[in-house]
Amino acid sequence: MTSQWQLRAAFAQRLSDMYGHEVPAYTTLVDVSREVNEDVLRARGADAERLGSIGRVTAERHGAIRVGTPQELQQVARVFGALGMHPVGFYDLREAAASAIPVISTAFRPVDGTELARNPFRVFTSMLTPADPRFFDDELRARLETFLAGRELFPPELLELADRAEAERELPEEDAERFLQLAVHAFELSPEPVDKAWYETLERVSAVAADIGGVRSTHINHLTPRVLDIDELYRRMTERGIEMIDTIQGPPGCQGPDVLLRQTSFRALAEARALRTPDGSVISGALRVRFGEVEARGIALTRDGRARYDQLLALVDEQAARHPGDRSDLARTVWEQHMPHTEQELAARGLGYFTYHVAPDRPRDGNHPPTSITELVEQGWARAEPIVYEDFLPRSAAGIFQSNLSGEGFRNNDREGASYDAGWLSGAIGRDVLDPYALYEQQQNHSLAQVARELELDGALS
Question: By three-state DSSP, how is residue 195 classified?
């Protein structure tokens, strides 16, 4: 029998192999990431594995796909449910970028700590929003919805196998192999000719809309390895002649603990595609929609920590508008002035999530331990281990999308946008979209309760 985590690991590896064949620059990205990680490990030793073992970091991937309808999103959820992956977080990219990006998103990923350690594969999944009148008028919306309703992204056999794997949490080896073949094939780039006129109609609204609704299939949009030094990765990729986007998205690189998520990518490449013209003939053309992304993950921030992060972004925006120049230098200055410089300070101020463990070399002088977790750590009774941020940032995701678009697209801001939220998305998917903060808090609270039990403390730790 093949368990869910084994299915997940095999799917991630096969998807990576397939994407590397389709987009050779992705293989270069993976190779450079591995080189950087090996160099960081040699230079920093055990400290390099503070946010995950080198084995996990090297194997880690997140993918990105795009679908058009709630029904397609439900089917995607069934495929990823087979792999032990759940929808976590709601991201509204329509509001996160100046360019026209008419999608809302969630991320499918494991949520249990053991499952994340086995294989933390995630898929950032975006759904088109034809009902938003800022992007689509009534006529275009009707044409788009008719087109989307007439396609099939996932064959019934794949969905049946997915449901079995999710219900039974495993598949017999032969069925597992068939599931993997069908699942990987569902995300391959289709050779079917693209309707040139229809694609260009949607592209005038948004290149993202055209990539989703202008073709009769879906495909992996990008795959993302994890790197321990993203600034060095950016430098080495540029040295190899790979054109990178202008910036690294997310927190600035500076002294202090790494937090949340930093991302960058090489620019979307022009890929040869067959195009069908209005007269029915098929010509050779090129579409520029897929790219190679890379990420560096840091510590998960609490709600207060995330509010601080958003405030600092706004402050950087404000100062950059008044003093045009090197935004990255400005961001580093702001960050170093307003964010904690150590993990201990991040934890003590309630800005980051940690798990806590009783220290093997804790005091043995007969004194009773304090009931404050901060004092327990300061006095050597317990140790704090950072919780890795497993999720995404809407502004950063939109920034990556935007950096790889050929144009701004069209958005009529005089119209009121359609309303979507996590509750709506849960109903559309047919399963709860989980709150990432609740998941991190549960993990932290479980560790605190364990410390209290081991130290025989009465009541909860403060």
Answer: strand
